[in-house]
Amino acid sequence: MAGTIDYGNLMHRAMRGLIQEVLEGVQQSGLPGAHHFFITFDTNHPEATLADWLKQRYPNEMTVVMQHWYDNLEVTDEGFAITLNFGDAPESLYVPYDAIQTFVDPSVEFGLRFEKHDSDDDDEGEEEDAIEDKRSDADVVSLDSFRKH
Question: How far from 97 is each of 46, 53, 137, 139, CA to CA, in Å?
Fold first, then answer.
């Protein structure tokens, strides 16, 4: 057994598992009620797949909205594939869970934020903050910007 418990890595895996479980439910039954997702991911992740024009437009990160129209949602243990509409142009994407930076469901004021810190080992030094409501610390996503007024 190692000298310390790596809580950051354990949280990382648990929160990515939560996203997988939510997306599996949507794959099986669709989005329930007013639920919808804002998912920001690293477009430079080596396993992320997106059209060249999207990669050029979003060279570092991209936020996609899963709400009114989506198609071909396929959820795996490593990530998810989906077809989304970009100005009447359907495009397929593949997003590995490790590429996700934020996952927000503004309909219930829930979100997750994954922060990476520079380190020699990619698995060490990663910290995640669960955003459960608007009383969160200043360094997490403000859900007020997604709120309907």
Answer: 12, 22, 24, 21
